[in-house]
Design a protein that fits this description.
By secondary structure, the chain is mainly alpha-helical. It contains three helices and no strands.
């Protein structure tokens, strides 16, 4: 049994993974050390939410897939 219920769909998941990976890589390449770490963490968090199919902010707002 899963501890969470998926609340984002397939295309949304793919877009989160791609945009998160690109954002993390861009932050490391383009920004200086303190800002790059924060940008990379944000990008990785976005990619992980796409990978798992669950967005905590969408859950709190009541948005998501209807089953």
């Amino acid at each position: 049994m899963a501890f969470y219920r998926k609340n984002i769909g397939g295309l949304h998941q793919v877009m989160r993974i791609v945009i998160g990976a690109v954002a993390a890589a861009a932050a490391v390449v383009w920004f200086a050390a303190p800002v790059s770490y924060l940008g990379a963490v944000a990008g990785v968090a976005l990619a992980l939410s796409g990978l798992f199919g669950y967005c905590p902010m969408c859950a709190m707002a009541g948005l998501g897939r209807q089953r």
